[in-house]
Amino acid sequence: MRPISATLNREGWIQLKSGRNQSCLLTHKKGKKWFVAGTSDGVIHVYNYDNRIQKLRSFRAASDCFITSMAVNPTRSYVLSSAYHDIKLWDWSKGWECTKSFVQEHTDTVSQVAFNPMDTNILCFR
């Protein structure tokens, strides 16, 4: 079993990462009863955890590569995902529609995405 790291940010989200594939889970503490998990096959799974964990839906976020990072916007209905050179913005209020896709123009893999805590309309990546 690979080690798992957990981070709690100021907005009350918990991010769990494990191993080289960096499977990510994010959980909302402010009234939302769901979390998302990005997997090594490029799929994002949405789960409800009201009384028990129940899968609500799954969708392909990347083809032929794993999800390297995810971030949740604390003020809007957005989740960012990164996979290889791509960053995608998902809107859960629109049925998890991909509303924007950013393709990197460099050879490095995007390893982390985040929303700027001072202005959540700005996204950051490395």
From TrEMBL:
Keyword annotations of the record = Repeat, WD repeat
User: Does the keyword section mention tRNA-binding?
Assistant: no
Pfam families per UniProt = WD40
GO aspect biological process, one term: intracellular protein transport
A GO-annotated cellular component: COPI vesicle coat
Listed SMART domains? WD40 (SM00320)
InterPro entries recorded for this chain? Answer: Coatomer_complex_subunit, WD40/YVTN_repeat-like_dom_sf, WD40_repeat_dom_sf, WD40_rpt
Protein's recorded name: Anaphase-promoting complex subunit 4 WD40 domain-containing protein
Species of the source:
Aegilops tauschii subsp. strangulata (Goatgrass)
